[in-house]
Amino acid sequence: MKDRRKELVRIGKLEKLADSLAKRADEAAREWAAAEEDSQEHRRQTAKCLSQIFADLVIPMAPDKIRTAVIEPKTFAPKINNQSMKQLARSAGLVSLAHTAYHLMCLEAARTMPLVRLPATQWLDAPFDGLGGGPEGERLVNAALKVCAATVGDNAQIILPTPQVLPACTTGLLVTEHESTRPLIPHPRPESEES
């Protein structure tokens, strides 16, 4: 009888412990759901702020080609005219402008958004590829350069290495021309006619 009573007491304690653990698990699940909702809301708000910065940068680069520009809350990837970067790949010029604006957005977010820690220097490799030549290409490059110059401010630096000849209007930018005889970064020289 004593052993039976001890067993019943032990079972009673285990049931109480199971009930207590179940309650704690329910509380943890509710806290997790609330934290997840807070996280999603923070993500949406961050994407909204980034979208505004991105749109303010990319639309002036080609106002006749870009009507809308947003940052996707799920992936933080840019969308232009409701098209993803993959869909924009058919238009190399828009992809170049989107990449340039995206990097400028990161630079601006570091200055204006709380708790954002990003570098103050951006290296945008060949940012004008695909913009084309002639008056149309020059117009797009000029617009992109103006946005770059306006974004950089006094506390940041943007390096824009590009093989394209820049338009005469490079207000606010320091232009350094390099070629294979005066390389900034070592690269193979063109073969001479003698070899």
Structure description:
- There is one protein chain.
- The protein has 195 residues and is mainly alpha-helical.
- It contains 4 helices and 5 strands; from the N terminus they run αβββααβαβ.
- α3 runs parallel beside α4 (134-152).
- The chain is 52% helix and 7% strand.
- The mean pLDDT is 80.
- The N and C termini lie far apart (106 Å).
- The strands form 2 sheets. It has a 3-stranded antiparallel sheet. A two-stranded parallel sheet has the order 4-5.
Note the topology:
Elements lengths: L1 H57 L10 E3 L6 E3 L2 E2 H4 L3 H21 L8 E3 L10 H19 L4 E3 L36
Parallel strand pairs: 4-5
Antiparallel strand pairs: 1-2, 2-3
Helix pairs in contact: 1-3, 3-4
Beta strand %: 5-15%
Order of helices and strands: HEEEHHEHE
Q: What do the pLDDT scores average to?
A: 80
Shape assignment: elongated
Summarize the structure.
The protein has 4 helices and 5 strands; from the N terminus they run H-E-E-E-H-H-E-H-E. It is mainly alpha-helical and 195 residues long.
Label this structure with key terms.
two-stranded parallel sheet, elongated, 4 helices, three-stranded antiparallel β-sheet, 195 residues
